[in-house]
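This part of the workshop introduces the protein records we will be handling. A record pairs a protein's sequence with a compact description of its fold. Comparing a sequence with its tokens is the quickest way to learn the format. To make this concrete, we reproduce a full record directly below:
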Amino acid sequence: MTPQEFFKHDLFAENAGVVLLEVRQGYSKAKLEIKPEHLNTGARTQGGAIFTLADLALAAAANSHGTLAFSLSSSITFLRASGPGDTLFAEARERYIGRSTGCYQVDVTNQNGDLIATFESSVFRKDQKVPFEVQE
């Protein structure tokens, strides 16, 4: 099983349209094409859609070490608006890895490389294997 196949079971992110592009140990990249269903009443990308994109990228990076990881806490800072027709990318990078915890930074950018949001999260790793392996 590939990481992409595994994370298709995240039905919320899957139904939102998040696509996992790349996974390496401690890193992942995902994208979301902004459509009308992702917009708030101000015709801008709804914050929950951006959070979902960043959260899936976090999950892929955190689980890339072969054990199941769950978020302990996450925070997001919205820096710039996006809207219809934009494609957003989330790149998750591992900042710290311990025996059972880790910290991650996720940058969300648009198709022009403009920074839309920053997302930080800490995770706890369970003593349970995931059904995929990634390269270093």
Q: What stands out?
A: The CA atoms of residues 87 and 112 lie 9 Å apart. The first strand starts at residue 19 and ends at 24. The mean pLDDT is 96. Residues 47-62 form the longest helix (16 residues).
